[in-house]
Amino acid sequence: MQEALLAAIQGAERFAGQSSVRTWLVGILKHKIIDRIRKASRERSADPTASEAGAEEIDAFFGSDGHFSEPPGEWRSPEQALEERRFFEALERCLQALPKNSAKAFTLRELMGLETDEICKELGISASNCWVMLYRARLSLRACLERSWFSGDARRG
Amino acid sequence: MRMAIRLSCKEASRLISEGMDRHLSFREKIVLWLHVRVCDACSRFTKQLVFLRRALNALPGPDEPEGR
Question: Is A107 within 8 Å of chain B by CB?
Fold first, then answer.
């Protein structure tokens, strides 16, 4: 809990301009992603290896020629998705499907706006491993959202 | 990362992602630009990662009142 609060407070400085700090803090602390981060910290492995950063998983997104095995498609009305509660439920499911350290790195970076060096310190990994982990998280999330939301009939189901 | 003038989508997408976390070098920016301007897949990938960042920041807390 202290760790989550600390992270939230560090992040809050950056968010102060965008919304009231209190609203943001309340929102963020109640959010279940925080629970996930807390759990991940408790179970944290001492030494995340390169494989945990996701080098092999990254290969799976590309052919041997370096092209996307499934090229990103055109996303229709992404703006509208941000208005829909079910889109965020899909996003959360995609986040939960990530390996825990990858999810943690990604939420610290994107949700709390921490810099990579802070995340590296927190996770005890090198900067380049951290970038790979974030890259892997983005590849997965992008593909997951495309599958679960942006591909034609998914949002009606 | 060793880098040729002509990037593959794999190399380009990695630079697109890293560009959201660190400053790219002059050379990285140039070779990335050369790739993205002719690659629809990587051009969409770029836009989608930017959208992903916005979506994360718009994640609602569970207790927030809906609508207004």
Answer: yes
